[in-house]
Amino acid sequence: MPWRFVGRTEQLNAVCRGLADSTTGPVIITGMPGMGRTTLIAQALSQTGPSWDRILRVTPGAAAPDVTPWPASPRSGSPRTLVVADDAHLLDDSVMLALRSLSRSREAVLLVSRPVPAGTVSRPDPTYCLSYEPGVQTILLPPLTETEVSEAAGILLGGPVQLATAEALRAATGGNPRLLRAMLHGGLADSMAWQRSGWTIAEPGTGGKGVPAAPLEELEEGIRDAWSQLAVERLDQLCKIALWSGKSTQVAAIWPFLLLLGGSPDEAIAFIDSLGDRAVAETPQLALIRAMTLALGMRQPALGTRFLLGAAGWGTEASGRMLAYRAWLLTLIGRAADAAAALAVIAAGDRETALFIHAARAGVARMDGQAAEAVFHLRRALATAESCDACPWMVPYLRDCLTEALVVSGRTTEAESLTTRSWMRDSASARYVADILRALAACSKREVGGIPA
Predict the structure, then answer these.
(1) Does residue 274 or residue 66 have the better pLDDT?
(2) What domains, with CATH codes, occur in the chain?
């Protein structure tokens, strides 16, 4: 069975049962374009073809139907005829009405396919006339599941696909077999590498000429979902698909963050620089990641904090947010006095600015030995972060900081309760992100403590 037909066994059986039932009316195969309607018809005919005396294929625009006789043993009763109309939504209304008459008179069994949606305002779908025929069966081809995508891709690649890769391919293609095949055949397979127990996308690569890229809406939704969950491995694969598809803007503030987490700050800076100054100016989170990469990843805190100070002077609406980013970053590298001075001139504007103001104030209080004050601001920051989509990585990080502050302030019961809730709510991937950020901050404090920021 061809790889692109993976996951259609249930629908194939339904079609074959419908064609074998003498009381069945028209059998309609429907689904989004690329879901395998034509392939399903071909598979059904390969299994049931010999049971028909003749098969008539009705093609839109053709002068006459294509008749396919099948050699069979002599049968008693009337000859059995199957009429197949793939893409029946393109037929003329008069042709469709004639096919309906054949079905009603039991002179032929009708097998048709149509996409979803099929009709338009100017030209309604002619197959609608079959919707309420006695015994009609409509078989919907749903998107492939992650397991089916993994199986289909694995057949092409010659081995199993890692779970995160299958999840990313499913999200990027919407489970569309045609698009999945086009992407893999069009060059994405060349970016695959065998790691541990399966194939994974190792490098972003470049999309093949004429190969359809991942649908923007599906890809963006998949990236948003993985980003909100901090599903790092799936996010890594989705970012590589986006870059392969030429959609770098969709992952502008995410891909360099992943590179920072993965210990590749040079690559993160190179990627951000490749986007141009305008992209950084228009995307505040991108400016934050650039500053974090300089200060934490490359151990150059002066460059990181100076960059944000300069970004605050660009004259954009995010000037206050840039200063809040800077104040928080100063606390990460242990500059309590500089952070306190920076906070004195910042007004809490939007939600994200307030988030980093509270996080910075908590950092200053913690370094000044005011654990209770740190707890207050960390709770405010955490509540704000949980309702702010821009920086989901702040949530597990702030929970870790809050737990530590509660312990220092002697509130161990609250700390234990928060830890329990965190383990129930946060994924292992989210905890990994928090651990890496805290480790980067600790290394930066230790290694560059004597350098003015």
Answers:
(1) 274
(2) 3-141 (3.40.50.300), 144-251 (no CATH), 272-446 (1.25.40)
